[in-house]
Fold Malate dehydrogenase.
Amino acid sequence: AKEPARVLVTGAAGQIGYALVPMIARGVLLGVDQPVILHMLDIPPAAEALNGVKMELIDAAFPLLKGVVATTDVVEACTGVNYAVMVGGFPRKEGMERKDVMTKNVSIYKSQASALEKHAAANCKVLVVANPANTNALILKEFAPSIPEKNITCLTRLDHNRALGQISERLNVQVSDVKNAIIWGNHSSSQYPDVNHATVGGKPVRELVADDKWLNGEFIKIVQQRGAAIIKARKLSSALSAASSACDHIRDWVLGTPEGTWVSMGVYSDGSYNVPAGLIYSFPVTCANGEWKIVQGLSIDEFSRKKLDLTAEELSEEKSLAYSCLS
Ligand code: NDP
């Protein structure tokens, strides 16, 4: 039998956390043959709720779940973890400036980075979900210099899956037959959902949809603004789909992407596609042996180029803002 893997979830008493921890305990994150020990972290005001989640995890009697650590102590939470899913973050409240939210999150990610740096297992893989996800991941990278940059990523898989979902609805095909959409850039409304290389059953999505106006307009908007549409409908933000796509992200990273298929991940830019190096930017990637690799050589038309640059500019600005909050 495999040794249990230790999985940290921060903000575990929150909405996404509540949807995510049972998925992890059922093997959705790492496979149904991989036992897990859950490390759940939250802040003191959420300690009682966090304990309630722990009680429910015990009550659910998940065979794969070999232990639960529920704590408000960041060192205890980070100790020995093999995977870290960072969901905790300071939400933007009414009347708050962008800079105020950034200051709060920069300080949270700085301190959690230091704890991971000192106490996580070697080769710990990190996924940042909390917004601003790309920039939080960058701060985490800065303050955890011993964690290789290739191990620090952020979530754009939800946006990727939303793009697949919209194409499947539009063409009335199974979502599992839609492949190789791309989310470029920031996990924000400046992201660029690109279907120029996407296929269904081997045929280009562009040919099948045969409506460039929709693909270059409405489709992009729907994907970019899907989160807001869900809040409007549910009066709560998307938690089920966020949790599910966080599992997809880690599972594909660890177990590999199928031959001929890529997914979108926010990763540290090496300058591929002329995206400035040193940003955490969403690219198409394939994964094998626990490592991601940016898909190279895709053609980028003029329309796409502008969109790739626009979202890169937003990320550069966020990066400067984050650094200004540090000083
Ligand atoms: P959620 O669980 O709904 O969301 C958590 C984070 O994920 C938010 O930053 C949210 O961004 C982000 N997110 C990224 N993608 C999505 C998506 N597709 N849909 C929804 N959210 C997304 O928030 P809760 O407030 O329910 O839970 C947060 C938890 O974090 C709480 O338990 C709280 O106690 C804890 N917390 C921890 C802090 C710390 O570690 N110091 C500080 C503050 C809170 P967005 O804000 O844009 O919705």
